[in-house]
Amino acid sequence: MRLALFQPEIAGNVGTILRIGACFGVPIDLIEPMGFPWSDRSRKRAAMDYDDRAEVRRHADWDAFADALTGRLVLFTTRGGTALPDARFESEDTLLFGSESAGAPDFVHRHAQLAVRIPLVAEARSLNVAVAAGIGLAEALRQTQGFAS
Q: What's the CA gap between 66 and 52, in Å, rounded?
Protein backbone atom coordinates (compact mmCIF):
# COMPACT_ATOMS: atom_id res chain seq x y z
CA MET A 1 0.00 0.00 0.00
CA ARG A 2 1.23 3.51 -0.86
CA LEU A 3 -0.14 7.05 -0.68
CA ALA A 4 0.52 9.42 -3.58
CA LEU A 5 -0.11 13.15 -3.98
CA PHE A 6 -0.48 14.77 -7.40
CA GLN A 7 1.17 18.21 -7.44
CA PRO A 8 0.35 19.14 -3.82
CA GLU A 9 0.14 22.86 -3.12
CA ILE A 10 0.02 23.21 0.67
CA ALA A 11 3.05 22.24 2.72
CA GLY A 12 1.03 21.65 5.89
CA ASN A 13 -1.16 19.07 4.14
CA VAL A 14 1.90 17.23 2.88
CA GLY A 15 3.40 17.30 6.36
CA THR A 16 0.24 15.81 7.83
CA ILE A 17 0.21 13.08 5.18
CA LEU A 18 3.89 12.34 5.84
CA ARG A 19 3.00 11.86 9.49
CA ILE A 20 0.12 9.53 8.54
CA GLY A 21 2.48 7.51 6.35
CA ALA A 22 5.12 7.29 9.06
CA CYS A 23 2.61 6.23 11.72
CA PHE A 24 1.09 3.49 9.56
CA GLY A 25 4.27 2.36 7.79
CA VAL A 26 2.96 3.44 4.38
CA PRO A 27 5.36 5.00 1.84
CA ILE A 28 4.47 8.32 0.19
CA ASP A 29 4.89 9.34 -3.45
CA LEU A 30 4.98 13.06 -4.28
CA ILE A 31 4.38 14.02 -7.89
CA GLU A 32 5.98 17.36 -8.71
CA PRO A 33 5.82 20.22 -9.25
CA MET A 34 4.72 21.13 -5.75
CA GLY A 35 3.38 24.53 -4.75
CA PHE A 36 6.06 25.09 -2.09
CA PRO A 37 9.78 24.42 -1.59
CA TRP A 38 10.57 21.00 -0.09
CA SER A 39 12.36 22.69 2.81
CA ASP A 40 9.20 24.59 3.82
CA ARG A 41 8.88 25.04 7.61
CA SER A 42 5.12 24.45 7.62
CA ARG A 43 5.62 20.95 6.17
CA LYS A 44 8.12 20.15 8.88
CA ARG A 45 5.88 21.66 11.57
CA ALA A 46 2.88 19.56 10.46
CA ALA A 47 4.94 16.36 10.21
CA MET A 48 6.64 17.12 13.55
CA ASP A 49 9.26 14.53 14.47
CA TYR A 50 7.78 12.06 11.97
CA ASP A 51 9.20 13.97 8.97
CA ASP A 52 12.45 11.98 8.95
CA ARG A 53 10.62 8.70 9.61
CA ALA A 54 8.38 8.91 6.54
CA GLU A 55 9.45 6.98 3.46
CA VAL A 56 9.13 9.50 0.64
CA ARG A 57 9.73 9.13 -3.08
CA ARG A 58 9.62 12.35 -5.10
CA HIS A 59 8.84 12.15 -8.81
CA ALA A 60 9.82 14.95 -11.20
CA ASP A 61 6.48 14.68 -13.02
CA TRP A 62 3.53 12.42 -13.83
CA ASP A 63 5.49 10.33 -16.34
CA ALA A 64 8.23 9.54 -13.81
CA PHE A 65 5.57 8.49 -11.29
CA ALA A 66 3.69 6.36 -13.84
CA ASP A 67 6.93 4.62 -14.84
CA ALA A 68 7.62 3.69 -11.20
CA LEU A 69 4.05 2.60 -10.41
CA THR A 70 3.45 -0.98 -9.36
CA GLY A 71 0.07 -2.41 -8.47
CA ARG A 72 -3.23 -0.66 -9.10
CA LEU A 73 -3.71 3.08 -9.12
CA VAL A 74 -6.72 4.02 -6.99
CA LEU A 75 -7.73 7.66 -7.43
CA PHE A 76 -9.70 9.38 -4.69
CA THR A 77 -11.83 12.05 -6.34
CA THR A 78 -15.15 13.82 -5.94
CA ARG A 79 -15.90 12.49 -9.45
CA GLY A 80 -15.29 8.86 -8.42
CA GLY A 81 -17.79 6.31 -9.65
CA THR A 82 -17.29 3.99 -6.67
CA ALA A 83 -18.33 5.09 -3.19
CA LEU A 84 -15.76 4.27 -0.50
CA PRO A 85 -18.00 1.69 1.25
CA ASP A 86 -18.27 -0.21 -2.06
CA ALA A 87 -14.59 -0.03 -3.02
CA ARG A 88 -12.44 -3.15 -2.72
CA PHE A 89 -8.76 -2.56 -2.05
CA GLU A 90 -5.67 -4.69 -2.64
CA SER A 91 -2.49 -4.61 -0.56
CA GLU A 92 -0.39 -3.37 -3.50
CA ASP A 93 -2.66 -0.40 -4.33
CA THR A 94 -1.35 3.14 -4.59
CA LEU A 95 -3.98 5.57 -3.29
CA LEU A 96 -3.67 8.84 -5.23
CA PHE A 97 -5.04 12.22 -4.15
CA GLY A 98 -5.15 15.30 -6.38
CA SER A 99 -3.98 18.83 -5.69
CA GLU A 100 -5.88 20.97 -3.24
CA SER A 101 -7.23 23.50 -5.77
CA ALA A 102 -7.72 21.44 -8.92
CA GLY A 103 -7.89 17.78 -7.92
CA ALA A 104 -6.57 15.43 -10.60
CA PRO A 105 -6.68 16.22 -14.32
CA ASP A 106 -8.50 14.03 -16.84
CA PHE A 107 -5.35 12.18 -17.95
CA VAL A 108 -4.83 11.02 -14.35
CA HIS A 109 -8.46 9.87 -14.18
CA ARG A 110 -7.92 7.83 -17.34
CA HIS A 111 -4.87 6.12 -15.81
CA ALA A 112 -6.65 5.01 -12.62
CA GLN A 113 -7.98 1.47 -12.37
CA LEU A 114 -10.45 2.57 -9.69
CA ALA A 115 -11.93 6.02 -8.92
CA VAL A 116 -13.27 6.30 -5.37
CA ARG A 117 -15.31 9.04 -3.75
CA ILE A 118 -15.85 9.51 -0.06
CA PRO A 119 -19.61 10.05 0.38
CA LEU A 120 -20.46 13.43 1.92
CA VAL A 121 -23.67 15.22 2.78
CA ALA A 122 -25.23 17.03 -0.17
CA GLU A 123 -24.17 20.50 1.03
CA ALA A 124 -20.46 19.55 1.28
CA ARG A 125 -18.10 20.05 -1.65
CA SER A 126 -15.00 18.15 -0.55
CA LEU A 127 -12.71 17.22 2.33
CA ASN A 128 -9.25 18.52 3.09
CA VAL A 129 -6.79 16.30 1.19
CA ALA A 130 -5.01 15.15 4.36
CA VAL A 131 -8.33 14.20 5.98
CA ALA A 132 -9.39 12.34 2.82
CA ALA A 133 -6.03 10.51 2.72
CA GLY A 134 -6.46 9.39 6.33
CA ILE A 135 -10.00 8.16 5.74
CA GLY A 136 -9.11 6.37 2.49
CA LEU A 137 -5.98 4.78 3.90
CA ALA A 138 -7.77 3.58 7.03
CA GLU A 139 -10.41 1.78 4.98
CA ALA A 140 -7.82 0.29 2.61
CA LEU A 141 -5.68 -0.95 5.50
CA ARG A 142 -8.75 -2.35 7.28
CA GLN A 143 -9.75 -4.34 4.20
CA THR A 144 -6.26 -5.67 3.53
CA GLN A 145 -5.37 -6.38 7.17
CA GLY A 146 -2.55 -3.86 6.77
CA PHE A 147 -2.71 -2.23 10.21
CA ALA A 148 0.29 -2.74 12.45
CA SER A 149 -0.42 -5.17 15.25
A: 25
Q: What is the CATH number of the domain that holds 132?
A: 3.40.1280.10
- Per-residue pLDDT tens digits for 19-70: 999 999 999 999 999 998 888 788 888 878 888 899 999 999 999 999 999 9
Beta strands 114-117 and 82-83, pairing class:
parallel
Q: Which of 57, 53, 43, 67 is nearest to 5 (CA)?
A: 57
Q: Where are the alpha helices (DSSP H) in the chain?
A: 11-24, 41-47, 62-68, 106-111, 129-143
The CB density around residue 130, as the number of other CB atoms within 10 Å, is: 23
pTM of the model: 0.95
Instruction: Judge whether 149 lies within some domain.
Output: no
Phi first, then psi: give them for residue 132, nearest 5 degrees: -60, -40
Of the candidates 119, 121, 70, 126, the one whose C-alpha atom is nearest the C-alpha of residue 98 is 126
How many domains are contained in the chain?
1
